[in-house]
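FORM 7B - TANDEM STRUCTURE REPORT

SECTION 1: FIRST PROTEIN
SEQUENCE AND TOKENS:
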Amino acid sequence: MSPQAYARTGGWLYLVIILIGFCTQFFVRDRLVVSGDVTATTDNILASAPLWRMGIAGDLIGRVCDIALMLILYVLLRPVNKNLARLAVLFNLVQTAVLTAFELSLWVAGSLSGNAATLGAFEPGQLHALAYLSVRSYEYGFGIGLIFFGFVCLIEGYLLFRSGYFPRTLGVLMALAGLSYLTNSFTLILAPAYAGTIFPVLVLALIGELSLCLWLIVKGVHLPNWEKRALQLDR
């Protein structure tokens, strides 16, 4: 595959990841999870069990796309600095592993909701509370995973800025995306009471990632400059 083919493929994969993440968050979890209301949340999950499971499946498809995108971005960015490109892959692998592991919490929430008949040691209210806690566990797990992804964005932002075959603006936007992820995640962990007020900062993350995604699809790389960098790397 040529660098342009890698770029186009990576752009479409990135778009799929963004769309899946948007749909599973806003059309599944935000629709079914009622903040602070254990009973309403578990009743919603129980009433919409197929939708809940589709959300989990969608997340996992996104994680598979993540792995393919890691390889593509490594190929595109390694001519700038091979070791930093590898470091970005390592951070990204940890992020994907963390997010995948915490999908189990969502599965547990769906399994516990309304399952008093098979888990006789617990009262229905206790099962509902456990299900809600599982959902909350996923939310914190997602925040932890985004700490590692924040460093991915910072590294990739630097590589994009220094590349010469991507616009420097993309590098700046991706670095800002990384900072916004780190700010949001550490606020969630260290000062959860302020997590809601700091959440709008993630708009910067969406702008940065969507900009890179669309640039890969529409423009790709500046091929002569990429080839020049690649030749220097091989020497």
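SECTION 2: SECOND PROTEIN
SEQUENCE AND TOKENS:
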Amino acid sequence: MSLRLLGRRRPGCLLQSAKTDPAAFAEFYEQYAQRVMRFLLRRIFDPELALDLTAETFATVLLRREDFRGSTEEEERAWLFAIARSHLSHYLRRGEVERRAVQRLGIMVGRMEPDEVARIEEQAGIAHLKPRLIAALETLPLEQRQAVELRVVHELEYERVAEAINSSQEVARARVSRGLRALALELDRDTELPEEVA
């Protein structure tokens, strides 16, 4: 998937033009693909998954472009990021069940080459974000920080996170969710794309 941004952009709302002009959708994709990928990667820190979710987001936009009723760049951007957030939310809800099924069945999952991962992480500015992420993690309330570290850093299932923090799985999920949301907001602060803040 090409994530190169076009140097020039035709004026107006590309998504309205894309309803009848395939070239306009290609330009829309080129204009926003890297932004969407960066938005997703900064929330899940998994380049392969961010790339997959970016593709799903644009596939949905392409299929539903007739539903778009806006007429400005701001409206098309808001609509696009709402779809990206929806795909991310859906993944987070279904992901654990699917990962367990894949593990239980012993299915081999393809992996990206290290140079592809490095390129995507560089485009999303992940190296630049690591010190900010560590600092932001320290600002979380203790119970959220512990839950996030257990779930994300140590990659424990929610059942194990709940055991470690002596709570129910629902409480563990809520703490991880609140912690990740706070981290995403902190990492998006002072960035060039305020519309990406969820």
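SECTION 3: OBSERVATIONS ON SECOND PROTEIN
The domain at 12-112 is CATH 1.10.1740.10 (Rna Polymerase Sigma Factor; Chain: A).
The CA atoms of residues 4 and 30 lie 6 Å apart.

SECTION 4: SIGNATURE
Preparer initials: ____
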